[in-house]
Amino acid sequence: MSKTSIYFLLVLTCLASFLLAAGMGSVSISFREILSGLSTPGLPHTLVYELRLPRAMAAFVCGGMLALAGLLMQVLLRNPLADPYILGVSGGAATGALLAILFGLGSLMTQTAAFAGALLSIVLVFVLAHGQTSWTSNRLLLTGVILAAGWNAFISFILTISPDQQIHGMLFWLMGDLSNTRVTAWHGFLLLAITIGGFFSARQLNILARGELQASALGVNTRQLRILLFFSASLLTAIAISLAGSIGFIGLMVPHMLRLMMGADHRALVPASVLLGGSLLVLADTFSRSVLAPIQIPVGILTAALGVPTFLYLLYRNRT
Predict the structure, then answer these.
(1) CB 137 within 8 A of CB 77
(2) Helices 3-23 and 53-77 sit at what angle, rounded to 10 degrees?
(3) Which residues make Cβ contacts (< 8 Å) with residue 116, sequence separation at least 6?
(4) Rounded to an integer, what distance in angstroms lies between the CA atom of residue 56 and that of residue 183?
C-alpha cells in the first residue's frame, strides 16, 4: 500500500472517530440529529457541540502529542521501546496533580500543578544527566528511570496518607481521565508547530536514528538536535499528561504500527503519528464512556487493554 493511500485511510479514520464521538454515549444521536444540531438549539446541540466534540478535540490533541512525543523519544534514545513516559515526566506530573487533589484544589489548578511537576522532572533529568561535557543517551535514560522510581515512591506515599474520599479521584486521574479536559487554540498551535518542525527536520531525524557517529560525519549538529528532541518530546508529554492524566501505550504503539506500514522515513512518520495517535485516543475515549454508560471507564485502561495485545502481536510478527 502506498503512503498516499495510508494517509487517505488515516484522514478517513480521523473523521470517523469524530463522527463516532459525536454520536455515541449514554444517549445515542443519529447523523441527521448531529447535522440539525448545528442550527437548532436543543439536546443534540448541547450534547454534540458543547460536550462531546470539545472532549473529542481534547482527546485528539492529547493523543497526537503522545504519539509524536513517543516518535521523537525513540529517535533521541535510539530505542524502539522508548515511550513518552520513560524519562520520568509522567511521575513528576502525577505527583503535582495528586498534591493538588489532596489539598482540594480545582481541576484547573490540578492541571497547572501537573504541568509544573512535569517541567520540574524535565529540568531534573536534563541537569542530572549532564556530564562534564555533555550527556549521552544512556546517561539520559538511566537518569530518567531512576527519577521515575523516585516519583513512584512519592506517589505511593501520597496515596497512603490521602483521605478515603479522595482516593477515587486520584486513581481515576492516574489511569487517564478526559471528562474535564478542554484544549485551547494554544495547545493545537503548539502541536502543529512541533509537527511542522519535525517534518522539516526529517532528514536529520533519519540520520540520527542510524547513529550519532554517522550523523556527525554527515554534518548534523547532534548535540543541538538532541536538546531540541528532548525538550520537544518532554514538553508534549508534560502538556498531554497535565490535560488528561497518565495514558499509556499511545506513544509506544503508534510509531511501531506506522513503521510497519510506511517505513522509517520521518517525513511520513511525523504527521502520520499525529493523525493516528489522535484518532486512536478519540476512539478509545468514545468507547470508554459508552461501553458501560453512564459509568465512564478511565481511558488509560482501554488503551492498555488494546495496546498490550497489539504490541505483543507486533513483537511476535517481527521476531527473528
Answers:
(1) yes
(2) 140
(3) 96
(4) 10
Distance of CA 275 to the CA centre of its chain: 12
Cβ-contact 245, 228 below 8 angstroms? no
Side-chain-side CA neighbours of 263 within 13 Å: the count stands at: 8
The 10s digit of each residue's pLDDT in 168-215 is 878 887 888 887 778 888 999 999 999 999 999 888 888 888 777 777
Percent of the chain with pLDDT over 70: 94
User: pTM for this structure?
Assistant: 0.88
185, three cell numbers: 487554540
CA–CA distances in Å: residue 272 to residues 8, 21, 50, 189, 292? 10, 21, 28, 17, 31
**CA 33 – CA 191 distance, rounded (Å):** 31
Of 1.10.10.10, 3.30.360.10, 2.60.120.260, 1.10.3470.10, which CATH number belongs to 3-317? 1.10.3470.10
